[in-house]
Amino acid sequence: MVTKVVSKIPMRFFGTVPRPLKNTQLFKSQSTTRLRVEKLGLDSLQYVANSELFKRLEPILLKDELSIMASGIVNVAKVVSRPVINHFCKSTLKDIEHLNSQVASDIVATNLSEHIHSTKQGEENKETLMQDLESSIQYFAVKPSAVCRQSVLEGANLSHPEQVDMRMYYSQLIRMAEKKGKTIVLDAEGRQIKSAYDELVHNILSQKLSPIFTIQASYRDALETLHHYHEWAKDYDVNLEFKLVKGAYVGHDQTNSETASMTCQTFDETHTQYLKLIEASLNLGHRPIIASHNDEILDIAEKESLATGNLLGLEVRHSTLTVAPYGDFNDAFHWTLRRMDSGVDGTRKRSNAIKKEIANR
Question: Which of 156, 191, 217, 304 could pair with 259 in a Cys bridge, judged by C-beta atoms 3.0 to 4.6 Å apart?
């Protein structure tokens, strides 16, 4: 399903500037200035993501009800950080649609409304996700926590009415998307709801539906998960499509007392697991989408002609799919900082690539 876009003509990441221009003209050129601003934003955001100040401010920024002083802090944060946040996240789906003409890869629209705490939020998101299918976007990433309360997903009762309703809804959404020639990507969640996620995968495959699932290399039982999905797809005679990722909530899963023992604790452990997943996937006859910024992994993807995925604003090589999130400021701010924290490798490479391009000019 995804491999059809691999043949797209790669797009240069950086605009070209005539070499004969003088240094002063180079500095003033619009494209070079944009690169300098982007690099400054990347470096600054990465610094903030790892700072002690952000750890103290983050809980304040994400609160719904704030004091007058806290509201002032939030408003200042919005003004200062919005240009950088907008580099990685957009406000609306319309903004995402405009990206279609600007990138060579296919866009995966990701609604940042997740981890809901009320059934009302869930019902609103269900309606929104259905409406989004009417847009020109071909790929949509969704999460169980966008339509089912986090507390219910973390519970052991897989037959809870809200979980049952969530599975029924996503089956309906996937069918609707397939009728429109579009694809749903079932995105990664935290380790605490893996049982609910796996049950959703099994339920979808049993109905012979074929969205794109997600397998996280940061889970120590990731290979076992791959084999489970493979056997389910084989039993129901349905094509299995999935992407391999490092992990969506690695930091939280590594430190949480309930999930730490089930989560890889070092980069090397996760990296080794990722390589094993690629090998096992190919041996089982699957063609996984490779979502990574790691050079060794991307070299393997290129050698095996596998589809690849990058995050908007962190492209370091041509990719098949570009994940483009959208949502309000609080969701976008939180998402961006989490990605900067877990995706430090990609952030650094993008910054270094820009630095090299500016130096060449």
Answer: 191
